[in-house]
Amino acid sequence: MNVEPLGKIYDIQGFSVQDGPGVRTTVFLKGCPLRCPWCHSPESQRFETELNWMSIRCLGLESCGLCLDACPHGCISRGESTVNAVGEPIAYPSVDKSQCDECGKCATACKATALYMCGSDMTIAEVMRRLTRDKPFFDTSGGGVTVSGGECLSQPEFTTELLRQCKAAGIHTAVDTTGFVPWSVVLRVMPLTDLFLYDLKCMDSELHKQVIGTPNELILDNARKIGESGGKLWIRIPTLPMFNDSEAHFQRYGEFLAAIRDAVVMVQLLPYHKMGLSKYDRLLTRKPVFVAEPPSDAVMEARKSQLESLGLPVRIH
User: Fold this and answer.
1) How far apart are CA 269 and CA 305, in angstroms?
2) How many Å from the N-terminal Cα to the C-terminal Cα in the chain?
3) E strand or H helix at 91, and its extent?
4) Cα–Cα distance for residue pair 264/195, rounded to 1 Å
């Protein structure tokens, strides 16, 4: 008997207009093999369901405190008193994540959902029921479904079957990938994928390994093979000061992309931003590693013009 694969999903976002053409619904799968220090979705990195805490929702221990008694391991204690957004004194819970086994009992008890579990197992049928609701928007806008992460191809069975059912339902499909997966996995999803949203974070392999934790040869090889096999690439370049925003680095991007120009339908430059920093506080343990000022508009326009001069279609996020 075939068992339907489960996907570990941390969000499904409707009306997404930056994850491919048209109006899209993006399915975010948990788990990523890379460790980008600027990651704006740090909750996507671990493959396991994990406890998060959103302070703005918390009622404070004086008004609630149910989490203190709910934790079976005594991981939650009274934190130092502070003031809330309206200047009132409040004490928040303090969670010792080193002793936490992510059982979720505190999240179940939290009536304000300030404590919540990030990542839930969903079946294909459950996800498809959510996606097909949005099909009228896909049909009128030229949009569809984007399967993202984390790294969605790190859950290949689920992603492949989800793409297969989307195609059967007449839905345009896109896969948002780091490219750091075996070619055999890419090959499995290629017939079911109308467009690959493909991240190119750094052209220097040694720097890529030093900063992100992996070399980049597999990523570049997979991009070439997708192009040679007739796939379509929507290239995404996160653009970061002191890392990859120089004219010299973009020359290397341009040379690589010009060689596979026929496969490239768009190059999307994503200027570094700080909007994801608050998510690190929710994780209770992990902190941002890379914090800088976003690249200037002048730099972004210069890098855009640099790639356009090579005949590449480019837009800034």
Assistant:
1) 11
2) 46
3) strand 89-95
4) 10
Domain range 6-48+120-316, CATH architecture: Alpha-Beta Barrel (3.20)
Q: What CATH number was assigned to the domain covering residues 50-117?
A: 3.30.70.20
Does the fold of domain 50-117 match that of domain 6-48+120-316? no
How crowded is residue 255: how many other Cβ atoms within 10 Å of its Cβ?
A: 11
Helix or strand or coil: residue 251? helix
Q: Which two tokens stand for residue 179?
A: 């490219």
pLDDT digits (tens, 9 = 90+) for 211-258: 999 999 999 999 999 999 999 999 999 999 999 999 999 999 999 999
Angle at the Cα of 9 (from 4 to 14), degrees rounded to 5?
110
Alpha helix locations (H) across the chain?
Answer: 66-70, 105-109, 124-132, 135-141, 156-168, 183-189, 205-212, 217-228, 247-259, 277-283, 297-308
Are 193 and 43 contacting, i.e. CB atoms less than 8 angstroms apart?
no
Q: Are 97 and 115 a contacting pair, CB within 8 Å?
A: no
Round to whole Å and give the CA distance between 31 and 48: 7
* Residues pairing with 94 in the sheet: 77
The pLDDT of residue 1: 55
- DSSP conformational letter for 309: T
Q: Where in the chain are the domains?
A: 6-48+120-316, 50-117
Which residues, including other chains, have CB under 8 Å from residue 72's CB and lie 6 or more apart?
Answer: 103, 105
Q: Is the pLDDT of residue 138 over 60?
A: yes
**Helical axes 247-259 vs 217-228, angle rounded to 10°:** 40
